[in-house]
Amino acid sequence: MKEDFLLNMGSDGVTDRLKRLSDLFVYQTRDFYRNNGLDIEPNWHMIFRLLQEREKMTVTEIAEAIHHSHPAVIKLINKMKAKGYIDSVQDTEDLRKYYLSLSAKAIQELPKLERYWAALSEALMDLMGNHLRLLEELREVEERFEEMGFNQRAEKILNTNRLPDSPSE
């Protein structure tokens, strides 16, 4: 195996390693979908699942459920609508609010999509060596983020003078 500088960095390389893994998953999942004739994107899976389970939701409800920003969810939803996978109905009492649901096309495609998602899920478990440790550890890190963010932790450390002074010029 070639040298990997990020591995040598230890914990200082973790954010870049997570980004690298995320990119690998997204790009290779996109290729998997395209190679199998599917016109969906990797990050739509969670929206499909959520609307499949809850039937109809607002953008705000979706954003809260998946812990993504409102603008990020709008971007996903708009792409899914453009491909015909999402229906949108305006609330009669609050005209600013729209309820989103899976379209007839999405519901028709779900059995086929389920087959591909099952294959991806099994491939992921294979990559993880069929262990759930990584998922548990990610959950713990996410919970610690909820308690106090990364930047807040760094500021706290910086402000308590726990770091050596920078060398004078």
Automatic annotation (TrEMBL):
Residues 11-147 form the HTH marR-type domain. PROSITE patterns: HTH_MARR_2. One of its GO terms (molecular function) is DNA-binding transcription factor activity. Pfam families: MarR_2. GO terms for biological process: response to stress. Gene3D superfamilies: Winged helix-like DNA-binding domain superfamily/Winged helix DNA-binding domain. This is HTH marR-type domain-containing protein. It comes from Echinicola pacifica. The lineage of its organism: Bacteria, Pseudomonadati, Bacteroidota, Cytophagia, Cytophagales.
